[in-house]
Specification:
Strand content: 5-15%
Order of helices and strands: EHEHEHEHHEHEHEHEHHHHHH
Number of strands: 8
CATH architecture of the largest domain: Alpha-Beta Barrel
Distance between the termini: 29 Å
Helix content: 40-55%
Structural class: alpha/beta
Number of domains: 2
Largest sheet: 8 strands, parallel, barrel
Number of helices: 14
Bound molecules: flavin mononucleotide
CATH class of the largest domain: Alpha Beta
């Protein structure tokens, strides 16, 4: 196992991905090394202090020092607009062991935005300020309060207002997904816009993390050059090429399809062992879709398993692919 981190060249963060990047995935992806920090899927905060079990469900690593089995720290992410409830839930996240807390100002989901959560708040810099200030005040000073945002909601007009709001409120770090909400996930990511945020944040000594469309070592280099920042967050790229962080951090060769398929099988086995059989086939299919970007074999594999409904059938189908011919998994 390669455990060297990407320091001092810059940190690598594993992106929060709701419905995809749960503890099992974080374990599989961080095992190979290269990552310095993970951020959890968002925890939706409305009008109450959530019970500890909700935090533990989202981030079981809290039972293990808030680290993945490979030792990568995991920070909890909260999403909401109410400063008071965000503050009490942030305090609880930290009490339960989260190394600081991250706040989501980037979620583009219509249902979330309709209830004034996620990216819609980029139209209200004053709300960003109030939420982050309240959270900052509620969390011990040694614990970082970080924020993740997009370039804007409809356009980038308020990018620097939002940046100043986060800085004035005491954000310790800002992750910028280099697209607006309206851009969705459509390429390109506008990495050069991150440079504008970084220029302002530098005045306060606050690091900025670049995010969006980094699928390879070459993208990573281009992203850093365009944004001028050294820290990068990887999302879909780390699912498409599961050892992307180690490729970047340690020059590890990109995994072969056989290695990727072994990780897919491991995910299946873990889900079964944890009693998540019903959920397992759809998870495997979901990952294969991401893997298609790096491996033509993943498409063949997906076509062959797309009608599989049970965990046992899925396991048998994948197992056949482990012996030659390796190009297919049936
Ligand atoms: C399925 C999915 C779920 C996501 N869930 C979250 C989330 O819970 N919190 C968050 O801040 N960003 C979330 N994101 C955004 C990612 O963290 C990241 O900003 C985005 O995918 C761009 O980075 P990438 O091109 O490296 O994937 C999600 C993205 C996807 C595709």
């Amino acid at each position: 196992m390669t455990t060297r981190s990407s320091e001092p060249g810059g940190r690598l963060l594993l992106a929060p991905m709701e419905g995809v990047m749960d503890a099992t995935m974080r374990d599989l992806i961080t095992r190979n090394g290269g990552f310095d920090l993970c951020v959890t899927e968002f925890l939706r905060v409305v009008d109450e202090l959530l019970p500890p079990r909700v935090f533990h469900r989202l981030c079981p690593e809290l039972h293990a020092g808030a680290r993945t089995p490979a030792g990568t720290p995991v920070r909890l992410q909260l999403l909401g607009n109410n400063p008071e409830t965000m503050a009490v839930n942030a305090a609880r996240a930290v009490e339960l062991g989260s190394p600081g807390v991250d706040i989501n100002f980037g979620c583009p989901a219509r249902t979330v935005n309709k209830s004034r959560g996620g990216a819609i708040l980029l139209t209200e810099p004053e709300t960003l300020y109030r939420v982050v200030s309240a959270v900052r005040a509620a969390v011990p000073a040694a614990q970082p309060v970080t924020a993740k945002m997009r370039l804007g909601f409809e356009d980038r007009a308020r990018l620097l207002d939002n940046t100043w709001a986060l800085l004035d409120a005491g954000a310790a770090e800002i992750v910028v997904h280099a697209r607006t909400k309206v851009d969705g996930y459509r390429p390109p990511a506008y990495w050069d816009e991150i440079a504008r945020v970084a220029e302002v944040a530098r005045k306060r000594g606050v690091p900025v993390v670049a995010n969006g469309e980094v699928w390879s070592r070459a993208d990573y280099d281009r992203c850093r050059a365009a944004s001028g920042v050294t820290d990068v967050m990887l999302g879909r790229g780390a699912l498409a090429l599961p050892n992307l962080a180690a490729v970047i951090a340690c020059g590890q060769p990109p995994w072969t399809w056989e290695q990727a398929l072994a990780a897919v099988m491991q995910l299946g086995a873990t889900d079964i062992a944890a009693g998540r059989e019903r959920y397992m086939p759809s998870r495997i299919k979901q990952w294969l879709k991401y893997l298609e970007r790096a491996y033509p074999e993943a498409r063949i594999c997906f076509e062959q398993v797309k009608r599989v409904r049970t965990a046992a059938e899925m396991q048998a189908a994948l197992r056949k692919g482990v012996s030659p011919p390796m190009a297919a998994c049936l």
